[in-house]
UniProtKB/TrEMBL annotation:
It comes from Roseovarius halotolerans. Residues 1-20 form the signal peptide. One of its GO terms (molecular function) is metalloendopeptidase activity. SUPFAM superfamilies: Duplicated hybrid motif. InterPro entries: Cell_wall_metabolism_enzyme, Dup_hybrid_motif, M23ase_b-sheet_dom. PANTHER family: MUREIN HYDROLASE ACTIVATOR ENVC, PEPTIDASE-RELATED. Keywords: Hydrolase, Signal. Its EC number is 3.4.24.-. Residues 65-182 form the M23ase beta-sheet core domain. This is Murein DD-endopeptidase MepM.
């Protein structure tokens, strides 16, 4: 399921005195292994129009997105606990805790009005530079306003609070209150601006990814996948369960892993090779219902896109089996 855009600003009163005028040098703000246990989902949107464009002129962003999203591979990983780390030395300017961890829905959207960033920490690095850490786990905030931190200090845990439906950390970088892309801090209007940006060791970039994943009750076609019409929220016990994925810019040799779990455990697991991918494609995998029917309850699927064993993207999908 495509994650919903988060709102970046946690405008609480700062208690800190600026430390230095130099721009910060950032380290990875999540205690994970990029390409193995986490991946960069989205970048700052550099397109001033209604479209989307990341710093490399790819499409790994969303219209108006104001930060860098580092996503975990599963909800189970979040439940095990993954630390959010200070990306650079500074003083904690503000914190917020107490926002429930739950995937956002139209029914709950109004309940987080003004708290779209979820549980969060804002750090002042001096010289007008600040970093913002959004969507952290409820009750996990480990620092207080006015506390000095060093790069790598634990701020809390990756969570599911605020305007999101997937466990991830949204890292925002601000200079004098304005959003800065840490991969292209000079806002140069070039593709792949080059250099390491604000990073001590710039994370690698690949333009391939997943538009979406979803469950259906039959193998869909690309048109219904693209439009969203293929996505089913409910199925009956006698219907097939089919997990699909919409991929962009894959290369020959890339793989898609499809897994699904239900009330009785594993439903299916398979790996598909993408031998001749195009700019866009979709793949699907599923199972017919057993003779006794699927047990009623919640089912969750994951699709993971990999290249040479390195995770490029992942998506999840949910469906409920109910008797009608």
């Amino acid at each position: 399921m495509r994650r919903i855009a988060g709102v970046l600003l946690l405008w609480l009163v700062s208690v800190a005195t600026p430390l230095a005028a130099d721009q910060p040098e950032l380290t990875l703000p999540v205690a994970c292994d990029l390409g193995r246990t986490c991946f960069i989902e989205d970048y700052v949107d550099t397109d001033p129009s209604d479209g989307q464009r990341d710093h490399a002129c790819g499409i790994k962003s969303r219209d108006g997105h104001r930060g860098t999203d580092i996503a975990l591979l599963s909800f189970e990983a979040m439940e095990q606990g993954v630390s959010v780390l200070a990306a650079a030395p500074g003083v904690v300017a503000a914190t917020r805790d107490g926002v429930q961890d739950r995937a956002i829905s139209p029914d709950t959207r109004d309940q987080i009005e003004g708290r779209e960033c979820g549980n969060a920490v804002r750090i002042d690095h001096g010289g007008g530079w600040q970093t913002l850490y959004c969507h952290m786990q409820n009750g996990s905030i480990a620092v207080k306003s006015g506390q000095q931190v060093q790069a790598g200090d634990v701020l809390g845990l990756v969570g599911l609070s605020g305007l999101t439906n997937v466990p991830h950390l949204h890292l925002g970088v601000l200079k004098d209150g304005e959003v800065v892309d840490p991969f292209n801090p000079g806002n140069r209007d070039t593709c792949g601006a080059g250099g390491k940006g604000l990073w001590r060791d710039a994370p690698g970039y690949d333009r391939a990814g997943l538009f979406t994943a979803g469950f259906s009750t039959s193998v869909p076609d690309l048109d219904t996948v693209s439009s969203g019409a293929a996505r089913m929220q409910e199925a009956t016990p006698d219907q097939p369960l089919v997990l699909y994925a919409h991929v962009f810019y894959a290369k020959p040799g890339d793989t898609l892993t499809f897994t699904a779990q239900g009330p009785d455990g594993e439903v299916f697991a398979t790996l598909l090779d993408l031998e001749a991918p195009q700019a866009q494609l979709f793949r699907a995998f599923g199972r017919r219902a057993p003779e006794t029917g699927w047990p009623e309850g919640a089912y969750r699927g994951y699709v993971v896109l990999q290249r040479d064993g390195r995770v490029l993207a992942a998506r999840h999908a949910d469906i409920g089996v109910i008797s009608r």
